[in-house]
Amino acid sequence: MAKKVRRKKVPPKHPASSVKLSMTDKKTLAALRSVADDLTRTAQRGRAPHIRIPSRSLGNVRYNKAKRFIEMGSGTNRRELFNLAQAKSYMQTILVGSGCKKLIEQGKTTSIRGLFYLLKHTIEGTKEETFDQQSDCDPIIEDVEVALNAMREELHLYAKNAGSMVGPISLVDSGDEIDCSRMGSGGYNIPSIVEPNVVQFKECDAQFILHVEKDTVWRRFNEDKFWKQYQCILTHGGGQPPRGVRRMLNRLHNELKLPIYCLLDNDPWGYYIYSVIKQGSINLAYESKLMAIPKARYIGLRSKDYERCQLSPSVRIDLKQTDVKRAKQIAQYPWFETKKAWQKEIALMLKNGFKLEVEALISKDISYVTEVYVPERLEDRDFLD
Amino acid sequence: MGSPDRNRYNPDILNPSSPRTEKLSYRSTGGHPVGMAPRLRTESQRVKEYQALATSNGKKKKADSTRAARASKRPSDSKTRRVPNTAPANGKRRRVTAEAMAAKQRDISVGEFFAKNRHLLGFDNPRKALLTSVKEAVDNSLDACEEAGIVPEVWVRIEQTAPARFRVSIQDNGPGIMKKQIPLIFGKLLYGSKFHRLRMSRGQQGIGISAAGMYGMLTTGRPIKIVSKLSVRRPTHYYELQIDTKKNKPEILNGRGEGVDIPPGKAGRAYMQRHRIEWVGHYDAEEGDEPTEVRSGTRVTIEMEARYQRGRGSVDEYLEQTAIANPHVTLHYTDPEGTEHIYPRSTTDLPAEPKEIKPHPYGVELGRLVTMLKEGKTVTITQFLTSAFSRVSPAVARRICQTASVSTRASTRRIGREEADSLYQAIQVTKIKPPATDCVSPIGEDLLLQGLYRVVPGEFYCATTRPPAVYRGNPFQIEVALAYGGNSVVQKVTLDLLTELLSESDARTLRQFLIMTFDGLGVDAADRILKEAKLGTRQSPSKLPHDAIKTMHHAMRNVNISEGQSMQVLRYANRVPLQFKQRDCAITESVMKTNWRSYGLSQTRGSLPSGPISIMVHVASVWVPFTSESKEAIAAYPEIQRELRLGLQAVGRKLGMYLRRRKRVKQESDRRNIFLRYLGEVATAVSALNGTDRDALYAQLLAVAKRKTTEADARFDQRGQRIQEGSEDYGDNVLIVDQQPEDLLADKLANDDAQKKLF
Questions:
Q1: Which listed site, B110, B120, B143, B343, has its alpha carbon 20 to 30 Å from B499?
Q2: How many domains is chain A partitioned into structurally?
Q3: Per-residue pLDDT tens for B304-358?
Q4: ipTM higher than 0.95?
Q5: Nearest CA of chain A to the CA of B668: how many Å?
């Protein structure tokens, strides 16, 4: 059914005149069209069509020592229609392309979950769904991004919002002026698209940015008005920061020349969050130049903090087998490999045999983290690079 | 002595024609000292064991050792007490004297022996008795017809006369029986034509039909009735017989002990009607044609205590299986409900007439050799060897004599025990050509396929006939046919029939009912059906309410039982289906020992393979080695097992090829399906992207898909040549049904009258 409905809507091949296409939109549409044209030509010649998709694996990323972030290599994967293992993902790729075209032509954006629902339908004559769950759809969207060399925003897609910001800065978001120092207890919800055409910075009194891992800690800082006292922008990304948050941090850092300090958990997960903020993610290596912040610094938590802060033993969380494995993996990433401090840090954590969350500092005192821990670190300039 | 096996291999003991051996000489072993000996041994052994145990346990306690000492005295006590005969000197009184015992020792009549031991002949219970009677009569009829060169037509009728009492009548269109012979054939055990010769036939012993008559007489007191017609002009003989079990002699009840001659023609027909003598006078005719008269034949009617039940081991099953293995026979069967089933013949060609052969030297035992030497009419040993045995030329005879150090011209009458023994040994070491094997007439691969195809629905059939081989000097031949696929009987059964089967069943639980009634249904499948129907496995089948029957029927139709289904093995010996003792049979054993996994079936080690598969194995021989007189299982001679294995492997290989091919075709079409499934989506999406004509693009992609899948499936043989698909060589005699099994079933139901009812 869904399919029929969709097909009826598709025929107006030329976008409704009311929608005005921007230059990027036109560029994206042309890229999409060229993929389709390629397929049509191949089929006409009686050949099996395929799409070249840049590989998004660790094997195809390169750490650029000069620029100090991860770059995507030139390796590509062929995705063939007439290959049993790839037939379905080929179909899904084309489907995502057609969905994006529709969004662009109608001048609308949707979340990746929205696109999933837009494209999800039963394949005619079977009981099979085009996409079973969103996790089937997400990597395909990333494939389309890299294949078209277009940012997700250019495809009129956004990831779910996760991440807040508060601090002495005012900005314009979609024409609305927002004062981030007057955002109450919730803070400014960082949208997933923060490109200069959507968000423009107005005034900024901040000296640096403090990025914390999660909402709990961020709330502590906000409630204690840490940002007011220290003149900083306070952000969190709800764990692994989404693209919007990372892009925002990147822009704040580059355009306003603000240094960035990260307060993350002392576990492999926290290390990798830092790694993603600093060098860019392996998965989205193609966007590193827009996302990575090579000058970011890691304040904590540190492996030595258990003794340094004399934490109670009950806040320790034992390392699991997977944690140990992941830690060793991270230690071997080229951008960590050459940093002795980091090697020591990881080795100490493995030696301790436990991890620490930032929340553990609350066991000392509710405001220990805002009143003692972070100020001391800033004072001592005790960071990891 | 009572062991039937011995009788079979040393036939002279039971030679009914010589008055000396008319009765089984059977001595009681009651007080025989030899009979006691083993018991004594075990007794003393047991004491020793006890002693050993007692001493080992009693190492710490002295009391135990004294107990053991006391125990060690016991055996001598018991010896004197229990076996006075062995120690007459100890002064105790004898219980029975040799004289007194002698007064009780006497001959045992064959009739009495088998009346007491009727299970040996297949009359263990009323249900089996019915089947055995029908079976013996039908086998005899078919043998007679084939021997006389008449295309057989057999009428079987079973009527219920009282609760647990049935009248069975079997008529054939054979040559009929001479008046003088009728009482002997039907009223005397161990009388017949087939025992003394080595010739492939269904009957072997000359015991079956008279035993059926005797069983009828013992259970109902009614005589056995025989009608025999020799030709159109001669009078028809009518006899009512009883067997004097003591004397093993027939007693004629009608016509003042002489039987009755019914004149031919109209008068005879009137007489028969008056006296209610049943006789099928005419063959079934095509519409509009004049029915042809049955010119000769025999009809035997026996009334007996019996039980009629459908399902495994039933008369219905026997007749159906007979029809498979005997495609030249037309069977008419009227069941107790009056429904007539007809199994029409598919060919009018009689099987090649089996030849009678002389025994082969390798198959003769010493005792038999001595008897033959004594009976021999020839003068010299060379003449004797060449004339009494097959495959013994004068040269071979000379070699045997040389090895045995017996003069080639020695008189047979002068040969003593020792010379006979050395002759026997010499025969074993002399190389003698195997017997001629043209005396066995196989069914043939074509007819096997036809027979199986007619009765077992399936998609793949193949058959193989092994070249003849020899066990113990007896030629034999193995044939194997196989049918794969199709719905099982469980899925064919109608609700009415199921209700009926349930009410008839004597199974205690539902699971037992399913397994017993439906061939090839394993415990697994039965459990799955019952689980689906939400019925308890241990529920009683007879009291099932109608609703429960309905849900069970539904479950039987819908549960996929082909996995839990085990192979159905149809066993035949000389064209006679074997329905019992499946586990004891060499055929089943060979099927289970064969590794079917390498042919694409699933099989637990040492059991029947599973899957929708039926296999038919025919052992044809001049002398089929049954394990008992009731002819239910074949003995496992290594030569027979070997041939069975080779035959099974031959059909297995063909099945394996078919299954692999089918799997490949399925994979190929799966591949294609996967592509086809996504092509539509791709075409739609692309046309949305760049505005190409969706249908044209779809057609183009489809063409690529088709080319791609065939390309990917091209296979190469060892030399790198491309193998053409679909041109695989299965060898001869393979039948592949391309229809869907459901269509096939529908066709069969529409065409085949015999299939209107289950079995």
A1: B343
A2: 2
A3: 999 888 777 788 888 888 888 888 899 999 988 888 888 888 888 888 888 888 8
A4: no
A5: 11
